[in-house]
TrEMBL record, chain A:
Its cofactor is FAD. PANTHER family: GLYCOLATE OXIDASE SUBUNIT GLCD. This is FAD-binding protein. PROSITE patterns: FAD_PCMH. Keywords: FAD, Flavoprotein, Oxidoreductase. Pfam families: FAD-oxidase_C, FAD_binding_4.
UniProtKB/TrEMBL annotation, chain B:
Its cofactor is [4Fe-4S] cluster. InterPro entries: 4Fe4S_Fe-S-bd, 4Fe4S_Fe_S_CS, Cys_rich_dom, Glc_ox_4Fe-4S, Helical_ferredxn. Residues 13-44, 66-96 form the 4Fe-4S ferredoxin-type domain. It catalyses: (R)-lactate + A = pyruvate + AH2; glycolate + A = glyoxylate + AH2. Binds 2 [4Fe-4S] clusters. This is Glycolate oxidase iron-sulfur subunit. It holds the Pfam family CCG. The lineage of its organism: Bacteria, Pseudomonadati, Pseudomonadota, Alphaproteobacteria, Acetobacterales.
Length: 480, 432
């Protein structure tokens, strides 16, 4: 189990007064204090880690958020921001002395401007909710994390989320124009605007991916794009994982940038097919989903070139989606992949590292070896095009030894990513999950420098404090 | 997801099933997004994942349910949208059924609520009593504004009176055997249902007309009655099992007597339950018969597709909004079929946006949770109006009543299909 900082005794002792103070700030139905009702808030998408919070607040306005943060700041109470609670790195894991501030009720679309191509939405609008709001007019919001159905844009900003289509369109940071931001002192700032690149320092760049440690985002302005003329997905099935890895390498090496290039191995193909009935090749050891877009002629030309490249790796089969429904089913399977693995294993740890695409065959080979060493199954599904791996380590949470092995296996995979020149986190954030591995990627000085930025915004480390950085060497938290 | 049941607890076959379901949930949270109550209330506790967590905690501890658990479980519509969304295949239906039973058996509700629930459980499954109650309610309807107070009970009573129809049709008994017209192609049983018979007997009449015209003999054994869903969803295990058992025995006797090509259900809420009899009776002496019955159960649209429905007239040029009842789309995974049949019959079919969200009817939900139900109804009606359709077709009486009060005229899908195959024009759209 992960180590969390000790609860502050003075906060725990004053719980009744703190709850009364919160009750004065928000309507009765926006404050949760009973143990029984706090229970479902003890964890997020990383259910292996759990901690009951002091209370949960569900504000409806930026002003309520500001009032709650101001109060917590005055009282020295820690705050855990929460969106949809889909984080796979434990980004919303509470602390025993912390108030969880959930943004699920701030789910309104505030403004849509097609002429200048932006949308202003509250932080609790789901990622897909933005696209749904503009799709009727032929627009979309590009970053598409697999959890896009449920995850909220505020969380996307905090984790700088990616997604399958980021290969072409970039991640959240590349599609973000502005945010409304509340500091722990309860001050409300507007950062950025409705156009790219404001004056002065790139505050927006700093806030994006700050994992709820610098402040809370309550409103988000995003770039919306006109949808492509059309898009088509194809499936290519291969007889081994390394061969599929080589095919990925060859496609990227040829200079083609498909909109998406996704990889799945055998266990994953089977689990996803059981959910989505998309016609995945059940006889393959590995499969690529490759999507291209543009006019029909462009799609045809690109697909023909990709077919030729794949053909050099003796594919078992290649299949182009024949209808929009087929494409949808193909993506439904891919986007539901993590959950679908729940069909074949009671629990999984979803890793998230990046590597240079040239290293794919090597790294995948090593993961297979490690899987044998640890005696734990692994299902591989990931954004192959940009080298963002998501090995899903299958374990049994009812068996503590199995969980310990899974954690060690996961750490080994991430270390391997760093070794071959990649990074600990692609798009899920560091959260609590990869916190202690930060020393593998950064020197002590580099970590201190980053901590200094956090301290500048939040000197007392009240906002989501136990995440991102190892607890060891943290002067503020250690002193507490 | 990790669970903490003791080995002794897991000896209990019911808890063992619950444990299996809980272990399938990986806590990914996808299901929250498509849950009507989460979308409206924005609280994890009113989401499927939150409810699963609450239920897990309650069952693991073995403690009696409290007001808090009852509150959040009662707010669940049992619409099963979460099951359509869940990539992991979590059987939320069986889990929440189990939880409802646990609540019913271990928690004592406040008296007015207990009384209301008892009255509903006593009335709804019995067409005779229900018709009588509807007559009374109709008389009481103009007085609903006089019920004082903003308390839950007052709101529930007003909601009940609100739902009473202006016109209560004369009963049209359907028990017995309806011979096939022309050469007999097969033989089916039909569930006559309970509340539907009273609210709109034309639905059964259209079903029988259409099937017999297509060459199928339709039997409605007198011993079969309510499917048990209403009491089952209230957590009232014994009465639900008793009515279900009567149906199983009656239909199984028909299977033995003359063979059946299907057991036709034209209220999809009931269909979901009849298809689940096999599971409900898995540990009962009637297990085999229940499995036979469940295997033969089909929605009327499934039967029509299988029996090759063919229209015989040209459809009038109006647009039909197809409302996908939750029990049909999420409970029975029937989504395209009804639209295909309506299109085959010649109608222009439109689908309202947010079709996956419940209309708020959900059995007795619109009476027990009037506020959430009203919000969902308003949302549904707005989406339906945006289609510009003149008529709404759906496959479940609950939805037809809920949407019909305040929206465009509603008809059961089978009524439109019967009309296009030689039956009468449905009364609800006489003016169109
Ligand atoms: S979608 Fe399924 S697996 Fe995911 S939280 Fe919901 S019930 Fe659990
Ligand atoms: S059955 Fe419907 S209301 Fe109940 S949890 Fe599932 S989606 Fe929500």
């Amino acid at each position: 189990m992960i180590r969390l900082p000790a609860p502050k005794p003075e906060v725990m002792a004053r719980r009744p007064q703190i709850l009364a103070g919160l009750a004065a700030l928000v309507p009765a139905d926006a404050l949760i204090t009973e143990e029984l009702r706090l229970r479902p808030y003890e964890t997020d998408g990383l259910a292996a880690y759990r901690q009951m919070p002091l209370a949960v607040v569900l504000p409806r306005t930026t002003e309520e958020v500001a009032a709650v943060l101001r109060f917590c700041h005055q009282q020295g109470v820690r705050v855990i921001p929460r969106g949809a609670g889909t984080s796979l790195s434990g980004g919303a894991l509470p602390l025993a002395d912390a108030v969880v501030v959930g943004l699920m009720r701030m789910n309104h679309i505030l403004d849509i401007n097609f002429e200048d191509r932006y949308a202003v939405v509250e932080a609790g609008v789901t990622n897909i909710g933005i696209t749904q709001a503009v799709a009727g007019d032929g627009f979309f919001y590009a970053p598409d994390p697999s959890s896009q159905l449920a995850c909220m844009i505020g969380g996307n900003v905090m984790m700088n989320s990616g997604g399958a289509h980021c290969l072409k369109y970039g991640v959240t940071a590349n599609n973000l124009l502005g945010v409304k931001f509340v500091t722990i002192e309860g001050e409300i700032f507007e950062v950025g605007g409705t156009h790219l690149d404001g004056a002065g320092y790139d505050w927006l760049g700093l806030i994006t991916g700050s994992e709820g440690q610098l402040g809370m985002v309550t409103e988000v302005t995003v770039r919306i794009l006109r949808g492509p003329e059309g898009a088509r997905a194809m499936l290519a099935a291969f007889s081994s994982i390394p061969i599929a890895g080589q095919a990925v390498d060859a496609i990227i090496g040829s200079g083609i940038i498909p909109v998406a290039l996704e990889f799945m191995d055998r266990p994953c193909i089977h689990a996803c097919e059981a959910f989505a009935h998309a016609g995945y090749p059940l006889d393959a050891e590995a499969m690529l989903i490759i999507e291209v877009e543009g006019s029909v002629a462009e799609q045809d030309a690109l697909l023909a070139r990709i077919r030729d490249i794949c053909a050099q790796f003796s594919p078992i089969s290649m299949k182009v989606a024949e209808s929009a429904e087929q494409s949808l089913a193909i993506w439904k399977g891919r986007k539901g992949a993590f959950g679908a693995v729940g069909r074949i294993s009671p629990d999984y740890l979803c890793m998230d590292g990046t590597i240079p695409t040239g290293e794919l065959p090597f790294v995948l080979g090593r993961i297979t070896q490690m899987s044998e060493q640890y005696g734990l199954g692994v299902a591989n599904v990931f954004h192959a095009g940009d080298g963002n791996l998501h090995p899903l380590i299958m374990f049994d949470a009812n068996d503590p030894a199995s969980f310990a092995k899974a954690e060690a296996f996961g750490a080994d995979i991430l270390k391997l990513c760093v070794e071959v020149g990649g990074c600990l986190t692609g798009e899920h954030g560091v959260g609590v999950e990869k916190r202690d591995l930060m020393t593998v990627q950064f020197t002590a000085d580099e970590l201190d420098l980053q901590r200094a930025i956090k301290s500048a915004f939040d000197p007392a480390w009240l906002l989501n404090p136990a995440k991102v950085f190892p607890l060891e060497g943290n002067k503020v938290l250690d002193a507490a | 997801m990790q669970t903490n049941f003791t080995p002794e607890q897991l000896q209990d076959p019911e808890l063992k099933v619950a444990n299996g379901i809980l272990r399938t949930c990986v806590h990914c949270g996808f299901c929250t997004a498509t849950c009507p109550t989460f979308v409206e209330l924005g609280d994890e506790l009113d989401s499927p994942r939150g409810r699963i967590y609450l239920i897990k905690d309650m069952l693991e501890s073995g403690r009696p349910a409290s007001e808090l658990e009852a509150r959040h479980i009662d707010r669940c519509l049992s619409c099963l949208s979460c099951m359509t969304t869940c990539p992991s295949g979590v059987n939320y239906m069986h889990l929440v059924d189990h939880a409802r039973r646990h609540v019913e058996e271990t928690y004592t509700r406040p008296l007015p609520e207990r009384a209301l629930r008892s009255v509903l459980a006593m009335l709804l499954p019995h067409p005779g009593r229900f018709r009588w109650a509807m007559r009374l309610a109709k008389l009481g309807k103009p007085l609903r504004g006089l019920i004082p107070g903003q308390g839950t009970t007052a709101k529930r009573l007003r909601a009940m009176l609100e739902l009473a129809p202006e016109h209560i049709p004369a009963p049209q008994p359907v028990t017995g055997t309806h011979p096939a017209e022309g050469a007999r192609r097969g033989r089916v049983a039909m569930l006559a249902g309970c509340a539907q018979q009273v609210l709109d007997p034309e639905i059964n009449a259209a079903t029988i007309r259409l099937l017999t015209r297509m060459g199928y003999e339709v039997v409605v054994p007198p011993a079969a009655g309510c499917c048990g869903a209403l009491t089952h969803h209230m957590g009232r295990h014994d009465p639900a099992m008793a009515t279900a058992r009567a149906n199983i025995l009656a239909w199984d006797a028909e299977i033995a007597a003359g063979g059946l090509d299907g057991i036709i259900v034209n209220a999809s809420g009931c269909g979901t339950t009849v298809k689940d009899y096999g599971f409900m009776f898995r540990n009962e002496p009637e297990a085999e018969a229940a499995a036979r019955v469940s295997a033969l159960a089909m929605d009327i649209t499934e039967a029509l597709a299988r029996f090759d429905y063919t229209p015989s007239r040209t459809a009038p040029p109006f647009t039909v909004a197809y409302h996908s009842a939750c029990s049909l789309q999420h409970g029975q995974k029937i989504t395209a079929l009804p639209k295909q049949l309506l299109a085959k019959a010649g109608f222009v079919v439109k689908e309202p946006a947010e079709g996956h969200l419940c209309c708020g009817s959900a059995g007795t939900y619109n009476m027990m949770q009037p506020e959430i139900s009203a919000k969902l109804k308003a949302r549904k009606l707005a989406n339906i109006r945006r289609t510009g359709a003149a008529v709404v077709a759906a496959g479940n009486i609950g939805c037809l009543t809920q949407i019909g009060a305040g929206g465009p005229p509603t008809v059961h899908t089978v009524q439109l299909l019967d009309w296009m195959a030689g039956g009468p024009k449905p009364k609800a759209i006489e003016g169109l």
